[in-house]
Amino acid sequence: MLSHRSNEKEILDLGPGNYTAEEFTHCQKMLYRINKILGFFHGTVNVLKKGGEKAHVMDVGCGAGLFILNLSRYFPKMTFHGIDISSEAIDMANHEKSVFASDTSNVKFEKMAEPNLTFGENSVDVILATMVCHHMSNEEIIEFFKQALHTTKDKVIINDLHRNIIAYGFYRLFSPILFRNRLITYDGLISIKRGFIRQELITLLEQAGMKHYQVKWCFPFRWRVIIWKK
Fold this sequence. Notes:
Layout: H1 21-38, H2 40-48, E1 56-60, H3 66-74, E2 79-84, H4 87-99, E3 107-111, E4 124-130, H5 138-151, E5 152-161, H6 165-178, H7 182-193, H8 198-207, E6 213-218, E7 222-228
Parallel strand pairs: 1-2, 1-4, 2-3, 4-5
Antiparallel strand pairs: 5-7, 6-7
Keywords: Methyltransferase, Transferase
InterPro entries: Diverse_substrate_MTase, Methyltransf_25, SAM-dependent_MTases_sf
Pfam families: Methyltransf_25
């Protein structure tokens, strides 16, 4: 079942007509909590600490923006730019920004008209993509790697899932009890099936022409990929 990446679509990928606004809002908030539980958030904090304190960070597929809003607490001198092709995600991100407890003057959100990165070369310091690549086909991932490296001055940080039968089994057992949201339970299982094994990531990076990169497995069942400009 998990020998190859799945092509199944997640409910979120099918668009707003397939879920309610309440489901979407609850899902986005839960996704940020899951990202913290899995270690994506604090892992990203640790990587950003090694860069310049005034870096310009772009979050691709920012969703409701909670990831970079909370990063801005750790790095108040950095500039954060969240982009997403979903209007409802950007609307929610701007709402979350307006009610956020800390200063958010260094954070902005922007809806993109198309999924491609159309920014100029070296226009940002760091690009983040957390739980984004598994939504893409292999061909789309290769193109994204190329566009991201073109856009960044320094590095690209990718956080995503390890496709693993143990992770799938645990999630299938406990997710309905813990989360009680079909966008989390149903989509989460598909996300794992659309995740990656190490060699797949390495193959995609090499097919994209990436020369300087690191693929690191992190507990529990997640990958952190860093691509450096040089």
